[in-house]
Automatic annotation (TrEMBL):
Protein name: Gas vesicle synthesis protein GvpL/GvpF
Gene Ontology CC, one term: gas vesicle
The species this protein was found in: Halogranum rubrum
Record's keyword terms, sorted: Gas vesicle
Localization terms from the record: Gas vesicle
PANTHER family: PROTEIN GVPL 2
Length: 207
């Protein structure tokens, strides 16, 4: 067993194992606890895992399984690539960041992140009023939302939404209503994800 721990996120006091593959094929997904905080980890042989598409997908898949395996378990996600030398090092980080983690867990309690991108079909146009209408309708179905980068000329909206786990169906209906009303726009809808865009904890991997 490797001494290094790849860390996916932090949950409230809980212990479990998940029989899915993590980053670099690490399995099982297990936990390391410090007082009322529990980190989700798997063993890994390197301190610098490759940021491949497969590894990024596995990171996200683990967090999604953590959420859904307990019908909406609250998780504060770590960014990709957080590796700690040992359980002792990880527990030290949980101890020093305890207040920040507890606050973040309260801020996103029972919530997941959903993503919506609006793409203008080729040859079509969209005005600011349309974008504002869509943004207002979707924001009304969420607890909070944040604007992300518009990385393409045809991308007219890119937002992340914080939605209660139990309200995902209602939010999905709001997305479908937008699709129905604006047929010349392509609506890309993704999630549920761990709430990356709604927590702000800066921690460097202790190496």
């Amino acid at each position: 067993m490797s001494e290094h721990l790849y860390t996916y996120g932090v949950v409230d006091d809980d212990e479990f194992e998940l029989a899915i593959e993590g980053v670099d094929g690490g399995t099982p997904i297990r936990t390391v606890s410090y007082r009322s905080l529990t980190a989700i980890v798997s063993d890994i042989d390197t301190l610098e895992p490759e940021r491949s598409d497969e590894n990024v997908r596995r990171h996200d898949d683990v967090l999604r399984e953590v959420i859904e395996s307990a019908d909406g378990r609250t998780v504060v996600p770590m960014q990709f690539g957080m590796v700690f030398k040992s359980g002792r090092t990880l527990k030290s980080v949980l101890r020093s960041g305890r207040r920040a983690f507890r606050k973040a867990l309260l801020d996103v309690d029972g919530m997941v992140e959903l993503g919506v991108k609006i793409v203008v079909d080729e040859g079509a146009t969209v005005d600011d009023d349309t974008v504002a209408d869509i943004a207002e309708r979707l924001a009304a179905a969420a607890e909070r939302d944040v604007e992300n980068d518009l990385f393409s000329d045809r991308l007219c909206m890119n937002r992340s939404y914080l939605v209660a786990y139990d309200d995902q169906e209602a939010f999905s209906e709001a997305v479908q209503a937008v699709r129905d009303d604006y047929e010349d726009l392509t609506v890309q809808y993704s999630g549920p994800w761990a709430p990356y865009n709604f927590v702000d904890i800066q921690i460097g991997a202790a190496q």
